[in-house]
Amino acid sequence: MERLQKVIAQAGITSRRKAEKLIEEGKVTVNKETVKTLGVKVNPNQDDIEVEGIPLEKEAPEYYVLYKPTGVISAASDDRGRKVVTDYIGTDKRIYPIGRLDSDTSGLILLTNDGEFANQLMHPSYRIPKTYIAKVKGLPLNQELKQLERGVKLDGKKTAPAKVKRIKSNRKKGTTVIEITIHEGRNRQVRRMFDAIGYPVDKLKRERYGMITLKGLNAGEARELTPKEVKQLHDWAVT
């Protein structure tokens, strides 16, 4: 027996948090009875579960890593007809991205139809490291980069300590390439951190998520995560 919201999330319909909201709104039935109480346990193999009138069919979980090109939206669909990350995944499953990358940011993004897994990775308390390569305008001093390591204030709240490494500087062009690793996921966080010290980002790419990298992938290419990688991410998230 498993909690109803967990079963809904694992079916790939939505995250556990959104499943809880659907339950509270009376949009979920178990054996034709409306359930509005969180924590109700069900047998996903025996109970008849419907979400907004649609029978729940548990899909086999799938997990992908995509090298997102610049200009692609981190969503499962877009009402304006723009390219979205799911366009690059060859599956008929209802997958969606774990977290997001801004349209103007390229690089590594994970996708899945496993809502519980996605919820674990996105939970702010799990602190999975994410590494970015940023090309910034200007030549920041070492002490200015130290500010990023210690944390800068965004919307009145200080960012968690980051790891920062200068890759190279081009004095002629007045640009610097910097590697930065953060554990949070605030809106446009890396760009805003560099803005906070006076060096706006020109280009940004996410290269690593936990132990997952873009090795072997070109922009627009994807691959399935191995069972070992899925387990490592899961273990990382819950420790």
TrEMBL record:
Query: Is RNA-binding tagged as a keyword?
Result: yes
Where's the RNA-binding S4 domain?
2-60
In terms of SMART domains, this protein maps to: S4
Gene3D superfamilies referenced in this protein's UniProt entry, alphabetically: Alpha-L RNA-binding motif (3.30.70.1560), Pseudouridine synthase I, catalytic domain, N-terminal subdomain (3.30.70.580), RNA-binding S4 domain (3.10.290.10)
Q: Which GO terms describe its cellular component?
A: cytosol
| Single GO term (MF) | RNA binding
One Gene Ontology term from the biological process aspect of the record: enzyme-directed rRNA pseudouridine synthesis
What are the record keywords, sorted?
A: Isomerase, RNA-binding
EC number(s) of the enzyme?
5.4.99.-
* Sequence intervals crossing the membrane: none
The record's listing under InterPro entries reads: PsdUridine_s_RsuA/RluB/E/F_cat, PsdUridine_synth_cat_dom_sf, PsdUridine_synth_RsuA/RluA, PsdUridine_synth_RsuA/RluB/E/F, PsdUridine_synth_RsuA/RluB_CS, RsuA_PseudoU_synthase, S4_RNA-bd, S4_RNA-bd_sf
Q: Which Pfam families match?
A: PseudoU_synth_2, S4
The entry's family comment says: Belongs to the pseudouridine synthase RsuA family.
Protein name in UniProt: Pseudouridine synthase
Natural source organism: Texcoconibacillus texcoconensis
Q: Lineage in the entry?
A: Bacteria, Bacillati, Bacillota, Bacilli, Bacillales
